[in-house]
């Protein structure tokens, strides 16, 4: 039976490829490399597709056409091209494509990240923006962030044994981000073993990888039934881990009732569900889908960006020194950093921007979806195309940035460029209707944790390692993390030994 389906799939794919070649001659598609029958261009992708697509775009242009099986893909690799797709024609490309990962990992596209564009999605985004990610809600968790960061600094001090022992900063930052996320989303800290013996970050990163890796089931629907790569099996396993854990969290909240304290995100969503005030049908599936959005967005993205920022500062001691000098001027050495200090830390802000430029949170922004045939930049864009915006390529485009491969925070001096989606040379959070609604929370977490670490500690690479020897290899997923954990020797540098923030 399996062989029969493979033959049928091959015949159908071959027919589709011939039809595609005929249509390509009739309409002006964007340029692209020559592909193979049936496969199209799938064979050109390696374990780091964002880098492969960047290299191809240098040869074929900033709007490039690739065919993955049945699916047409438009690869966007410049600021001007991104503006066309994310601003000028934003509404046409505001949806998300159907794919197996969103089916299994987001409760059939019920979440904000993968939800299809329409009335439901617009109402869900409105709810999240007003109720879950408002400045009032973000600020209500400020005392928690202060307390967790104080514990984190003490833990780093203890592990470093007075600045003589290397510390796994990747693991510690990941643990801090998980604790902060749990407090905001669930109202309490959970241990790694509570979700799975592999821990929060492992399970979330597994989900991120499965959502980003090329999946034959998405490009050849009949092959999805056979699951030749085993990805569907892995997706179902991860989805069950999340579903079981989130059900337990919801049950805990139902049993606890109104606790009369700062409401966490689950409290807020459960109140909305029980009140019936939502403008759409709102059930436990929606609550779980948004819980996963909030947990993954506030944990994995922040932790990865902090790792890359610290890695770049360790590679560039002069930049590290400038950040510390600014912190000494604004904060002083008698206390730790507070959130109210962040707006005054201009050079730190440049460091974070430069980190986002070289290491955008999601180098291939979540794919957009063409809801109708249209023409963009003189090219025909077929309906049902996937629009893949390569934020990494845009951030390293020599037409927008001088010395694009170098870490130079000073490049932002006098340049009115931010990361909020208005300047298309730098769009780590996307732009337009599908821009990340959690941007403000993410910026606070990244800037605060980087500032606190660099202010409280002198950081040095272990074992006499030279800055240029630091391994910067990437591990691909929706969020691209360091392939190897970042190790450093931290030595406490403040002029007090208080164990809590700003007594």
UniProtKB/TrEMBL annotation:
Residues involved in heme binding: 436
Gene Ontology CC annotation, any one: membrane
Cofactors (names): heme
Membrane topology: Single-pass membrane protein
Transmembrane domains' residue ranges: 6-23
Location within or outside the cell: Membrane
UniProt keyword annotation of Iron present: yes
Keyword Cell membrane: no
One Pfam family matching this protein: p450
Keyword entries, A-Z: Heme, Iron, Membrane, Metal-binding, Monooxygenase, Oxidoreductase, Transmembrane, Transmembrane helix
CDD domains (UniProt xref): CYP71-like
Major localisation: membrane
Molecular-function GO terms, alphabetical: heme binding; iron ion binding; monooxygenase activity; oxidoreductase activity, acting on paired donors, with incorporation or reduction of molecular oxygen
Family statement drawn from the similarity comment of this UniProt entry: Belongs to the cytochrome P450 family.
Protein name (record): Cytochrome P450 CYP736A12-like
Organism: Dorcoceras hygrometricum
């Amino acid at each position: 039976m399996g062989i029969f389906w493979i033959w049928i799939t091959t015949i159908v794919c071959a027919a589709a490829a011939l039809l595609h070649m005929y249509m390509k001659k009739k309409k002006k598609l964007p340029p692209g490399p020559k592909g193979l029958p049936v496969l199209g261009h799938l064979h050109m992708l390696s374990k780091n597709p964002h880098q492969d697509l960047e290299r191809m775009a240098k040869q074929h242009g900033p709007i490039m056409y690739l065919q993955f099986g049945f699916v047409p893909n438009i690869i966007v690799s410049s600021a001007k091209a991104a503006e066309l797709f994310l601003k000028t024609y934003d509404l046409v490309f505001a949806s998300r494509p159907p794919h197996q990962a969103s089916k299994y990992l987001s409760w059939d596209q019920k979440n904000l990240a993968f939800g299809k564009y329409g009335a439901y999605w617009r109402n869900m985004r409105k709810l999240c923006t007003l109720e879950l990610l408002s400045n009032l809600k973000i600020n209500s968790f400020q005392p928690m962030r202060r307390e967790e960061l104080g514990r984190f600094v003490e833990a780093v001090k203890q592990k470093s044994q007075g600045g003589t022992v290397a510390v796994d900063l990747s693991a510690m930052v990941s643990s801090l981000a998980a604790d902060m996320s749990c407090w905001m989303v669930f109202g309490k800290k959970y241990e790694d073993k509570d979700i799975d013996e592999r821990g929060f970050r492992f399970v979330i990163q597994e989900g991120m990888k499965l959502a980003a890796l090329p999946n034959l089931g998405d490009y050849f629907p009949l092959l999805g039934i056979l699951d030749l790569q085993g990805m569907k099996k892995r997706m179902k396993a991860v989805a069950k881990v999340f579903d079981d854990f989130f059900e337990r969290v919801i049950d805990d909240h139902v049993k606890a009732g109104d606790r009369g304290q700062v409401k966490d995100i689950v409290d807020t969503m459960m109140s909305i569900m029980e009140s019936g005030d939502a403008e759409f049908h709102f059930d436990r599936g929606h609550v779980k889908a948004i819980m996963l959005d909030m947990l993954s967005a506030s944990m994995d993205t922040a932790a990865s960006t902090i790792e890359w920022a610290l890695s770049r500062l360790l590679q560039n001691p002069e930049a590290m020194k400038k950040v510390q000098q600014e912190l000494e001027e604004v904060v002083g050495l008698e206390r730790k950093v507070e959130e109210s200090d962040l707006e005054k830390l201009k050079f730190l802000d440049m460091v974070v921007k430069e980190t986002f430029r070289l290491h955008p949170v999601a180098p291939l922004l979540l794919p957009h979806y063409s809801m109708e045939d249209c023409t963009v930049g003189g090219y025909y864009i077929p309906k049902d195309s996937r629009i893949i915006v390569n934020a990494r390529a845009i951030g390293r485009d020599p037409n927008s940035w001088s010395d694009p491969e170098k870490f130079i925070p000073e490049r932002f001096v006098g340049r009115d460029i931010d990361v909020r989606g208005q300047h298309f040379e730098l769009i780590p959070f996307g732009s337009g209707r599908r821009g990340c609604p959690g941007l403000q929370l993410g910026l606070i977490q990244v800037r605060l944790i980087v500032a606190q670490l660099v202010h409280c500690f002198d950081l040095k690479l272990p074992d006499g390692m030279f800055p240029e020897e630091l391994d910067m290899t990437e591990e691909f997923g929706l969020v691209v993390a360091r392939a190897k954990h970042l190790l450093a020797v931290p030595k406490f540098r403040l002029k007090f030994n208080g164990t809590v923030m700003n007594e």
